[in-house]
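cron nightly-structures :: item 1 of 1
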Amino acid sequence: MSRLQISVLLALVVGLLFAVGAAKPSESAHGLLLVANKADHTVSIIDPESGTQTVVPESGITAHELTASGHLAFAPIYGNSGVGRPGTDGTHIDVIDIPSHKVVGNIDFGRGVRPHNAVLGPKDGLVYVTTELDQTVSVIDPATQKIVGIIGTGQPESHMLALSHDGKRGYTANVGPGTVSVLDVQARKQISVVKISATTQRISISPDDRMVFTADQTKPQLAVIETSSNKIKTWIPLPGTAFGTTATPDGHWLLATLPGARQVAVIDLATLKVARTIDVPSSPQEILVRPDGKIAYVSCDSSHKIAAIRTSDWTVDKLIDAGNGADGLAWAVGN
């Protein structure tokens, strides 16, 4: 083979490799959607592109929220009640192997603590879980599946948790007291409590870590907490009472579910005003934005559906079947 032929062959090989690399979808756009189905006591593992769903029975009643770390999902078993209401008190976390669709572990607290919202630490890879009855956030090593730390919130009903993207701060929505606890994650202590209203729900943080959002349950408005001062910066009026919120990765938009209105509000984070609303199936609960920012998934509790919203034009691209009482969402990166 001549040098010219070899050069042409190498050029063709390099070109083919570039073509394959260019054609390969970005990893952020491909993964599995995990859904906690409260009424069914199951976790759905869904391919959001095809809609294929595998259902994993939980080992207790029932998980409301979940998170993923590698090939494992962590689903805290909360109990059979709502926050602050009488009922059973969950004692453990199910560990689910996503590829085999099986519960493979049990992180046992040894007593009723109502473990609820699990969040993966952005820097340390640890799993942080609200342990409501203990007024704490428990810290778990996903590799050993052991509890390695505790952070006191100083407030009852610490139901939901948001972590800053630098991993230094945590914020819990304390439902009954209507407060937010500010946590020093590294020192594992509470450093402030922000009063919101008589009752508050859910919590999220902006991508630049400058603002935290939680929904007032007494008025149709969101509280905006300035993280530099740990004080309420302003309120965002809404067309209905909000529940779950999450920001898009580019920091341009904040999405809020409005269960009573069967809508999702799209809020411009530059102006802190509602730009539009999107109709979705009944009882929208939680929002998860795909890592590439192109699709927002909204769990719709009583309709057994997940609404997939295109962020390019804010239209519902499709409805994905889930289980009864679909609530908590997580994203598992595909292999």
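cron nightly-structures :: done
The CA atoms of residues 56 and 78 lie 17 Å apart.
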